[in-house]
Design a protein that fits this description.
Layout lengths: L1 H10 L51 H12 L8 E3 H22 L5 H13 L2 H7 L5 H8 L4 H12 L9 E5 L7 E5 L18 H17 L4 H20 L4 H5 L8 E3 H7 L5 H7 L7 E4 L2 H13 L2 H16 L5 H16 L7 H25 L2 H23 L6 H12 L2 E5 L17 H17 L21 E3 L4 E5 L14 H18 L20 H19 L15 H21 L13 H12 L2 E3 L1 H10 L5 H7 L5 H6 L20
Parallel strand pairs: 3-5, 6-8
Antiparallel strand pairs: 1-9, 2-3, 4-5, 7-8
Family: Belongs to the peptidase M13 family.
Pfam family, one: Peptidase_M13
Organism: Pseudoxanthomonas mexicana
């Protein structure tokens, strides 16, 4: 995902020979931990089965219902989740593997390296009694420091000090490849500071109840931290006014997802200082240990200007309340149950409709993944990913690449000049599969069995400094933006690469023993999806080397926008069962990638099976099973609150519309199910969208 790749950068192909996961130095020691996996205790995976089909429905008029309706009706959302489907089931399986590994690491007395980090975080995180006994004491020194902030200069100094520890309350700051020279890292400062999911939550009429609940949540957190009830209520109202002002100066998620150039606003440090007279970037950079930087990207400058104004005209008491609330709210998952439960009540129950808090072990594993994901991943791939799977994936990627090349060559709407540039970009794709060839070095991160939040804060600071250490240096192209145990995939425009972590390489996406149509309809379409991100409305603004450049002729660019406009209109026309409108513009990049990815995967499947008889498995043709496995990937139930939240904030359309959106544009789908013009799943004429 393009937006994910950019966000990952903010936070933090030729065939290659299989490389065994690198072992840390402890693996050579006589008493090294020998990781074991009890596969019999792992949750099952979600495969397409003939019995899933609801034959009372017609694939040509209700393909999502035909493929997934019966399964969705029979699989309620677990009480500790807000959605349930193929992705979530694989996530449960990955989490169960991680739990076994963390328990083994924590129980090993001589653990060193990544196993010690994972073991310490697990052991301290699982000590619920100690967290409850400590209450708010672990962050009492932070709150005392906030109480002492009496003027603007003291507030700015505190913001700089806490940012240097990886706790930046107001804006994101980190490394990012230069748009004009993606081989080098620069620094970028982004907007931030909001407690609600997006700026629109502060203004939209249908979010009024959420705003009311958020103010009540702020007051409750302040009360738990020791503020008197009446004072907490007043401070909560002041904080909401404060954040609303920040929201007015912010860009929405839709804005950011549909214009990647917003991340790129290079200026000199001196000019940045002039833009925000109450906040010195010179002093900020110095406080972060970033030296010798002549210029950086001050993204969303109007936001930073507003922060500067607020430093000058907002009562320090309001700043203290804001900083106190976000300090406590951010630490809540690592404090006593009272704090963790209050955070759950608002962010999970109210915002997303989750009925019960996750068991503690799942929450601790989530923390480990957030703070030391690749350390845990180094353990994960030793027991949960095979060289054979990687080799077969490499074949699939090569076949998808060849199919995409052929599709570009045969585009009717694009000129030969632009085609040549598009083919150059396709030839330059690189791929990462399973796990990194070179593991990240965790030397310097000191963890212990003394304090859960102490370990978390140490990891936050370590990760922040690791990221800042990239600024002004060449991009390390071996790095990954996701850990191997994450069920996901992404496209990175700066490196023109597609990346597939080990955990997604399981059914229904991928099975080394499955028939071709199932793998091409699953992971093949995902591979094609990530490749097509290089040609979506934002990825297409980057060239083959990852440079932000225009390689389009004017006529082709105009034609491309006309085609993408038709896809916007298609998804704008979709409605949920309760009448909510899908935002075709916000979801455009993902919808382009789905459409191109599925079409490319189908072509690759037909090429791979050329000359072989159709097995007619369970009475279904090969083509039918290809499209049915695509739909299986997108079977997912949502709580009403989660669905509303995703429509407002997610650049992906809800799963049921992804199941039908791309296939409805493909004549091959209509042929597979003998659909006729006029059927809901057959788009013809001006309604049919063909891009890549």
């Amino acid at each position: 995902m393009l937006s994910l790749a950019v966000a990952a950068a903010l936070a933090a192909c030729a065939k290659k020979e299989d490389a065994a996961p690198a072992a840390d130095t402890a693996a050579k020691a006589p008493d090294a931990l020998q990781l074991k996996l009890d596969e019999s205790s792992l949750p099952g995976v979600n495969r397409f089965q003939i019995g899933d089909l609801d034959t009372s429905k017609n694939a040509c008029t209700d393909f999502a219902g035909y493929a997934n309706g019966k399964w969705l009706a029979a699989n309620a959302i677990p009480s500790d989740r807000t959605s349930w489907g193929a992705f979530e089931m694989l996530d449960e399986r990955s989490t169960a593997v991680q739990k076994q590994l963390a328990e083994q690491a924590a129980a090993h007395p001589g653990a060193t390296g990544v196993e010690k980090i994972v073991g310490d975080l697990w052991a301290t995180g699982m000590d619920e009694a100690k967290a409850n006994a400590q209450g708010i004491e672990p962050i009492a020194p932070m709150l005392k420091a906030i109480d002492g902030l009496q003027d603007k200069d003291a507030i700015v100094a505190y913001l700089n000090q806490t940012a240097a520890k990886g706790q930046n309350f107001l804006f994101g700051f980190g490394s990012l490849p230069e748009f004009s020279n993606p081989d080098m890292n620069t620094a970028v400062a982004m907007q931030g500071g909001l407690g609600l999911p997006d700026k629109n939550y502060y203004f939209d009429a249908d979010k009024k109840d959420i705003r009311t609940a958020y103010v009540a949540h702020i007051a409750k957190v302040l009360e738990l931290s020791g503020v008197a009830t009446a004072d907490a209520q007043k401070q909560a109202t002041d904080i909401m006014v404060f954040e609303t002002r920040l929201a007015k100066a912010s860009k929405s998620r839709e804005d950011l997802s549909r214009d990647v150039s917003l991340y790129n606003n290079m200026m000199s440090v001196a000019d940045a200082d002039k833009l925000t007279p109450n906040f010195s970037w010179t002093k900020f950079l110095d406080s972060q240990g970033v030296t010798g930087l002549q210029q950086f990207s001050l993204a969303i400058p109007s936001f930073h200007q507003e922060v500067s104004k607020m430093l000058g005209d907002t009562d320090p008491a309001t700043w203290r309340a804001y900083l106190r609330f976000h300090t406590v709210d951010g630490a809540a998952p690592y404090l006593s149950d009272a704090f963790a439960n209050e955070q759950f009540n608002f962010y999970n129950m109210t915002l997303r409709g989750q009925k019960e808090i996750e068991p503690r072990w799942k929450r601790v594993l989530s923390t480990i993944e957030n703070q030391s994901g690749e350390a845990l991943g180094q353990m994960y791939v030793k027991v949960a990913f095979s060289p054979e799977a990687k080799a077969k994936m490499e074949t699939l990627v090569a076949n998808l690449g060849a199919a995409l090349k052929a599709r570009i060559q045969n585009l009717a709407w694009m000129s030969d000049e632009t085609k040549a540039k598009a083919m150059e970009k396709q030839a330059a794709f690189t791929t990462k599969i399973g796990y990194p060839d070179k593991w990240r070095d965790w030397t310097g991160l000191s963890t212990s069995r003394d304090s859960y939040i102490g370990n978390v804060l140490a990891a936050q600071e370590f990760n922040y400094k690791f990221d800042l250490g990239k600024i002004g240096k060449p991009v390390d192209k071996t790095e990954w933006g996701m850990p191997p145990q994450m069920v996901n995939a992404y496209y990175n425009p700066f490196q023109n690469e597609i990346v597939f972590p080990a955990a997604i390489l399981q059914p229904p996406f991928f099975d080394p023993n499955a028939t071709d149509e199932m793998n091409y309809g699953g992971i093949g379409a995902v591979i094609g999806h990530e490749m097509t991100h290089g040609y979506d409305d934002q990825g297409s603004r980057f060239g083959p080397t990852g440079k932000f450049e225009n390689w389009w002729s004017d006529a082709d660019s105009k034609g491309f926008k006309a085609l993408t406009g038709k896809l916007v209109a298609q998804f704008d026309g979709y409605r949920t069962a309760d009448g909510q409108k899908i935002n075709g513009n916000h979801t455009l990049g993902e919808n382009i990638a789905d459409l191109g990815g599925l079409a490319t995967a189908y072509d690759a499947m037909k090429k791979a099976t050329e000359g072989t008889p159709d097995p007619m498995t369970d009475g279904l043709t090969r083509d039918q099973r290809f499209f049915l496995n695509w739909a299986t990937v997108w079977r997912r139930n949502f709580t009403p609150e989660e669905l509303k939240n995703r429509i407002a904030t997610d650049e992906h359309a809800p799963a049921q519309f992804r199941a039908i959106g791309a296939p409805s544009n493909l004549p091959t789908f209509a042929a597979a199910f003998s659909c006729k013009p006029g059927d809901a799943m057959v788009r013809t004429g001006d309604q049919q969208v063909v891009i890549w």
